[in-house]
Amino acid sequence: MSRIGKNPVEIPSGVEVTLNGALVTAKGKLGQLSFKATDEVEMSVNDGKVWIKPCNESKQARALWGTTRARIQNLVQGVSEGFTKNLEITGVGYRAQVQGKALNLQLGFSHDVLHPIPDGITVTCEKPTSISITGADKQVVGQVAAEIRAYRPPEPYKGKGVRYSDEYILRKEGKKK
């Protein structure tokens, strides 16, 4: 049984949540996001909270109960505060800079890598070796960060590559004579 699903989703001031059948829409200062829930859960809004409960006691309904609550929580948090992922670049000559609607990455290839920045996402580079990805949609922010990291994932011997700022790289010892 879901313990996450039992808790209601608090709606902060400045955020408006509307239910239209299975469609949940959250509107706040950072934009508008929507999510189509399954028919296995019932949702209601009262007292500034979104309450979610399963329609029946099937295993599928109980599994989607907590998932639906987490998705709605991410919508509300996204339109009110937003989400951020930070990447760090390690390596001699490795750097990044924002050029218009693209991120220019120099990662040791014979060419520069131009990664397009999708709508609703803000990418900033305070230093040439740090990238900050911000947006309202948690899934899109994580996807963009994963795509940038995939160009040159960190390698275990010298640690060169693109990594998340909170990621720990398990280092290996090199060859011995």
Task: Give structural attributes.
2 helices; 177 residues; three-stranded antiparallel β-sheet; 13 strands; RNA-binding; 2 domains; Outer Surface Protein A, domain 3; alpha+beta; ribonucleoprotein; 20% helix; four-stranded antiparallel β-sheet
Could you explain the architecture of this structure?
The protein is α+β, with helices and mostly antiparallel strands and 177 residues long. The chain folds into two domains: 9-80, Outer Surface Protein A, domain 3 (Alpha-Beta Complex), CATH 3.90.930; 83-164, Outer Surface Protein A, domain 3 (Alpha-Beta Complex). The chain is 20% helix and 38% strand. The chain has helices at residues 59-80, 138-151, and strands spanning 9-10, 16-20, 23-28, 31-36, 41-46, 49-54, 83-90, 95-99, 102-106, 113-116, 121-124, 130-135, 161-164. A hairpin with a 2-residue loop joins strand 8 and strand 9. The radius of gyration is 21 Å and the shape is elongated. The protein starts with 8 loop residues before the first strand and ends in a 13-residue tail after the last strand. GO terms for molecular function: rRNA binding; structural constituent of ribosome. This protein binds to the 23S rRNA, and is important in its secondary structure. It is located near the subunit interface in the base of the L7/L12 stalk, and near the tRNA binding site of the peptidyltransferase center. Belongs to the universal ribosomal protein uL6 family.
